[in-house]
Write a structure and sequence with these properties.
Elements (H helix, E strand, L loop, with lengths): L2 H4 L10 E3 L9 E5 L11 H6 L4 E5 L3 H7 L6 E5 L2 H12 L8 E6 L4 H11 L3 E5 L2 E4 L13 H13 L4 E5 L2 H5 L10 E4 L7 H4 L2 H9 L9 E5 L5 H7 L5 E6 L9 E11 L2 E8 L2 E7 L4 H16 L4 H8 L10 E4 L6 E5 L4 H12 L6 E5 L8 H13 L2 E4 L9 H9 L8 E2 L3 H11 L5 E5 L6 E4 L2 E4 L2 H10 L3
Parallel strand pairs: 1-2, 2-3, 3-4, 5-8, 5-9, 6-8, 9-10, 10-11, 11-12, 16-20, 17-18, 17-20, 18-19
Antiparallel strand pairs: 6-7, 12-13, 13-14, 15-16, 21-22
Helix pairs in contact: 4-6, 5-11, 11-12, 13-14, 14-15, 16-17
Length: 485
């Protein structure tokens, strides 16, 4: 594609690829030099050119730096106003606007994005997924660095999924992704709001700013419908932000009614260790729904997915039938033990106060004996939620083991100290080594007990001082339980 076809710049040079990373440049590439948190992409322009880049794109506010860094380099220099904001549209143009040929469902909210995206990928025909645990088709996922990848990667992934025959895409849209324009240039057909609670305040600063960022998804051009969890306390604010031309489907387990659009509700809810059963009501129809998942919050996720299926043309009975075959997502209420005289062990990603409370409340109804929890908090992230998670753990579990999560570059002792600040009696057991903490919890539990291992879920590493060491909660649990078979 010619540079002049990508944006308003008079050049007939042909571009063979786009790259934000100099190491990914090849012959004929356009290197996009953005300002990062620690370094500017212009510092790597020479390397990009050596790898074959024929032009360097940068923000027009960085012209002075570009003149300095590119002075002796034989390369086309292109300043662009508001480059970060325009990057998604530029990439969409380069990849022939893939989202125009796809039905893309964007999912935002503090918790539940991954579950909803994976459930949609299991139930919608020809559906790909982009999110926390990877992108691609179910069973063939490629790992992603972020929940919502950068703008170039998003468009490249959409183009690849389109070429692989996907018609539908379930895409997790994080607050970081919205704030940084990573989904600019994506044409969403539908949007889901799961819930809202404290998270990422190290980035957004306030809950109000965090929510305002989430609302950006519902301003997406050409959005046709929005699915809103009416049971969340900020649902009224979400509803008020949605343009009049967007159809609204409210979902509820608490018999609430949306004053805008239509309502999908679940009543007569029964929860047990084998799953969830309820009656669902849609328009003038009633249907029995069974899903092999644990927890009321998972029913909220399923209702969001069911609403999308209905808006996509699936009949209620057929949609309910498909949902009976749902498979749990790795690291989301993943079950181990619970038989052969072993305690029930649950591995879940719950890493916010709200998520931890919901999981513990759900497991309480499934626990004959005592309910224990093993958790920690990540380093170099929102410190304010640590004491809140400590408070939740003490309030809703019978016993607590506080351990390390991903300390990153923070002192694990300081992180634990912050968590303990939320305890009233401060009786939590401290075991920094996560393997030892999990082993201690399992050995402590009886066959009637339930143990929640929270905070890391699907993650297969533990990050300490900039190094990611191989570690997975599920793998650790399997190995320990195997010793007692």
């Amino acid at each position: 594609m010619k540079i002049s076809d990508l944006f308003d710049f008079d050049s007939n040079l042909n571009v063979s690829g786009l790259a934000l990373n100099s190491g990914e440049c090849g012959e004929g590439y356009l290197f996009i030099a953005l300002k990062g948190a620690n370094h500017h992409g212009l510092n790597y322009a020479k390397s990009a050119i050596e790898n074959g880049a024929i032009a360097v794109l940068f923000d027009n506010e960085d012209v002075t730096l570009a003149d300095e860094m590119l002075a002796d380099l034989n390369v086309l220099k292109i300043p662009v106003a508001d480059l970060s904001e325009k990057l998604g549209e530029l990439a969409a143009r380069f990849y022939d606007e893939p989202s125009q040929f796809l039905n893309i469902i964007g999912i935002t909210g503090t918790n539940g994005k991954t579950s909803c995206s994976q459930f949609l990928a299991q139930t919608l025909e020809s559906c790909g997924v982009i999110g926390t645990i990877g992108w691609g088709k179910i069973g063939e996922l490629t790992q992603t660095l972020n929940t919502t990848p950068d703008a170039l990667a998003v468009q490249k992934m959409l183009a690849a999924l389109k070429n692989e025959g996907c018609e539908n895409i379930a895409m997790e849209v994080s607050s970081h992704g919205l704030a940084q324009g990573r989904v600019n240039g994506v044409q969403f057909k539908g949007a889901i709001f799961t819930n809202f609670s404290r998270d990422h305040l190290d980035y957004h600063g306030t809950m109000a700013a965090y929510l305002e960022t989430k609302l950006k998804l519902f301003d997406a051009p050409l959005l046709e419908f929005a699915v809103i969890n009416l049971d969340d306390e900020v649902s009224d604010k979400i509803l008020a932000s949605i343009p009049e031309n967007v159809a609204i489907i409210g979902v509820t387990t608490q018999a609430k009614q949306s004053l805008q659009g239509q309502t999908l509700s679940a009543k007569n809810i029964e929860l047990n260790l084998s799953g969830i059963q309820c009656d669902v009501f849609w328009r003038n129809q009633k249907c029995v729904l069974y899903v092999p998942l644990i927890g009321l919050f998972n029913l909220e996720n399923v209702l969001c997915v069911l609403a999308v299926m209905l808006k996509s043309g699936t009949e209620l009975e057929e949609a309910a039938k498909r949902l009976t075959n749902l498979k749990p997502v790795d690291g989301r209420m993943e079950r181990f033990g619970g038989e052969n005289n072993q305690p029930l062990i649950i591995v879940d990603y719950a890493h916010t106060p709200d998520a931890l409370e919901k999981v513990l409340r759900s497991l309480r109804s499934h626990t004959m004996g005592k309910l224990g929890v093993v958790f920690g908090c990540g380093g170099n992230r929102d410190k304010g939620k640590r004491s809140q998670m400590g408070k939740v753990a003490e309030q809703f579990a019978d016993w607590v083991i506080v351990t390390d999560d991903n300390p990153r570059f923070e002192s694990n002792e300081e992180i634990v100290k912050d968590i303990l600040g939320g305890f009233f009696n401060n009786e939590a057991k401290i075991i920094h080594d996560r393997t030892k903490a999990i082993r201690n919890a399992i050995e402590k539990a009886t066959a009637q007990d339930c143990v929640l291992i929270a905070g890391k879920g699907h993650e297969d590493y533990q990050e300490i001082n900039g190094v990611k060491f191989p570690f997975g909660d599920a793998h650790c649990v399997r190995e320990i339980l195997a010793l007692y078979d």
